[in-house]
Design a protein that fits this description.
Strand content: 5-15%
Largest sheet: 5 strands, parallel
Structural class: alpha/beta
Order of helices and strands: HHHHEEHHEHEHHEEEHEHEHHHHHHHEEH
Distance between the termini: 44 Å
Strand order of the largest sheet: 3-4-7-2-8
Helix content: 40-55%
Number of strands: 11
Number of helices: 19
Length: 529
């Protein structure tokens, strides 16, 4: 008579109940180990970037850069659009309604998300090249004017000294001599020339405030890795800088500060844009902290309306050709024109002499925007969104009209913002929402993300197959595996899905939980990757 096949427990609960009988999992025969189940997919699908969403004069250059770098076009388009919007800054607003005074400025915040090596930084630098050129030109002009100012200052000092010397000689000869007092009241040389700034990397509140006083139309903060920078802003000693940056998102509110040595200083309106990159792991950690109600839960990341995490798969090809000169020249010309923008010459209106000019939608564009907003507001109030995503999408009230204004001005149009530019902005809203859902989804599905990271370490051989504990994972300092609670949640999910087995290792002290890797899990990982 043929022997029956060995009994295989149906699930991890059954295996746990039979653990005393089954014994040490390191000695289990292959038949005892279950076939591991796949992890839940943590990435929501996202909309692909559509080049039609870009202004006509920027589209060819974005296409050329993305093709030559073999990177997602999103990595080029988002920094370029953010840079164009911030270049306009406070010089022109948009009023999205026909009569009200509600207005928004196009200082935009963006973040491109991708794994290391996906060309995020080179793509961002290529997109910001027109701004870098403007900065170089401004520095050259400032250096020349600074030299001229110093020369004029020295000449003015020499003349004043000469007049003083002549008066002193005259008074020595005749104490009652008349002195030309007017010569001592000659005007001082002009104030030192101010360097036009376009971007900053990092600065204190005081330094940022001073730069904004000198550059009232706004500045763009450029950071290579945003999550680490944002986490640093969670510290207590960075609270004021964090508040200052968040104030700069709307571009409307002033900031007053008093410091010893600086006295009373006021920024009439703090206007800041932000652009940077992020890796999925650190971004997920930051989002999870925000969604747990920590220091990050203040709406900082929700301000990054241009948040994209595109697909990076597909075939790679070697592209080695000369950049598209006409496309580059056209894109750079757009930035030159935005830098020299005269809103009134473009048909902007003024409420008061000391108020920024503004544009409104034309009738067709206003109807399209209003229809979108009615559906949008109803969706926000449906109760179907979890709070963090709801907070993020709510910022689209500013994002959509601001994008329409940027596209309108970038394509050189005059008068009210038209339907074509508005339609592009609405297309961006649909596209960006899918990317926001993906990014916030990894925070919701934290256990699966952590489990996936642990399995990746298993595949690489970083964890002993015949037993490891939580301390080995935490001490290694691996990205996304530093939080004890998250690591425990990830391990529990892996046990449930049959990738590992928990067992209590006998010790003299308290019970020590060890995890043994299912030998079937490693080939599964290798096959999947």
């Amino acid at each position: 008579m043929k022997a029956p096949p060995p009994y295989e427990p149906a699930n991890h609960h059954e295996r746990a109940a039979l653990a005393p009988a089954l014994g040490d999992p390191r000695t289990w025969p292959a038949a005892i180990w279950p076939d591991p189940q796949p992890l839940p997919e943590g990435l929501a699908p996202v909309a692909a970037f559509d080049y039609a969403m870009l202004p006509d004069r920027l589209r060819p250059w974005v296409q050329d850069v993305a093709d030559r770098m073999q990177c997602p076009p999103d990595f080029v388009a988002v920094p370029m659009v953010a840079a164009a919007g911030n270049l306009i800054g406070r010089r022109c607003a948009i009023r999205p309604q026909a009569f009200s005074d509600w207005q928004e400025f196009p200082n935009l915040w963006g973040c491109i998300v991708g794994r290391p090596g996906m060309m995020k930084s080179p793509a961002m630098m290529a997109a910001l090249a027109p701004v870098v050129r403007l900065e170089a030109r401004a520095l050259e002009e400032w250096t020349a004017s600074q030299g001229q100012w110093r020369a004029e200052t020295e000449i003015a000092k020499a003349r004043a000294e000469a007049r003083k010397s002549e008066a002193t000689k005259a008074l020595r000869k005749n104490p009652d001599a008349l002195v030309d007092v007017a010569s001592f009241l000659a005007s001082d040389p002009d104030d030192a020339p101010i360097l036009r700034r376009y971007t900053v990397a990092s600065a204190t509140v005081e330094a940022l405030a001073e730069k904004l006083i000198e550059n009232p139309r706004g500045l763009l903060v450029v950071r290579d890795e945003l999550p680490g920078w944002l986490a640093g802003l969670d510290r207590e000693d960075a609270a004021e800088l964090r508040a200052f940056l968040m104030t700069g998102w709307n571009g409307k509110d002033g900031w007053t500060f008093d410091r010893i040595g600086r006295g009373h200083r006021r920024v009439p309106a703090v206007c800041l844009g932000v652009i940077g990159g992020a890796q999925p792991g650190p971004l997920g950690e930051y989002l999870r902290a925000a969604m747990r109600g920590g220091a990050s839960d203040d709406g900082m990341l929700a301000r990054f309306g241009l948040l994209v995490w595109p697909e990076t798969g597909g075939k790679w090809k070697n592209v080695d050709r000369i950049p598209d000169g006409p496309a580059k020249a056209a894109a750079f010309e757009v930035f030159d024109q935005l830098d020299a923008l005269d809103p009134l010459a473009r048909g902007a209106e003024l409420d008061a002499e000391d108020a920024p000019p503004f544009l409104r939608f034309d009738p067709e564009a206003l109807e399209a925007f209003t229809d979108w907003r009615c559906c949008f507001e109803a969706g926000l109030r449906s109760g179907d969104l979890y709070p963090a995503l709801e907070s993020h999408l709510a910022k689209y009230r500013k994002l959509v009209p601001a994008l329409a204004l940027v596209f309108h001005l970038a394509d050189g149009h005059r008068g009210p913002v038209g339907f074509a530019s508005t339609l592009r902005a609405l297309h961006w809203a649909v596209y960006l929402e899918t990317h926001a859902r993906r990014c916030y989804g990894i925070a919701q599905d934290g256990a699966a993300d952590t489990a996936r990271r642990i399995l990746e370490r298993v595949r690489k051989g970083d964890l002993l197959r015949d037993g490891f504990g939580t301390r080995e994972i935490q001490r290694a300092g691996w990205s996304g595996l530093s939080n004890p609670k998250q690591v425990q949640e990830g391990l529990e999910l892996l046990v449930e899905l049959g990738h590992i087995e928990a067992w209590q290792e006998p010790t003299r002290g308290r019970v020590k939980t060890q995890y043994v890797i299912n030998p079937k899990s490693v080939p599964a990982m290798e096959h999947r990757h």
